[in-house]
Amino acid sequence: MDGFAAWIETQRRGNLEAILGAYAEPSEPRDTSCLTDQEMPPTVWLVNDEGQGMRPVLPQTECDSYKREVIASIEQMPVTGRIVQQVAYAP
Question: pLDDT at position 1, please?
Fold first, then answer.
């Protein structure tokens, strides 16, 4: 049976200083003796006023989890728009 899934795009606008600072943090050296469960991080595109964009890579902890302070800096930026797109899929 075919179906649809919702792809939700949340647009945020504001000062990128905190986000850029958080993304600038290096990933920690990987410790292969630890494992972690984590939520799926947001997909982030940083787009300037000219429409040019980049997709930065989230820095990670030694156990390969995403640094929570980076995600928190994104979530603190005000939401200015939301677009819901229906994406068809087949099992």
Answer: 54
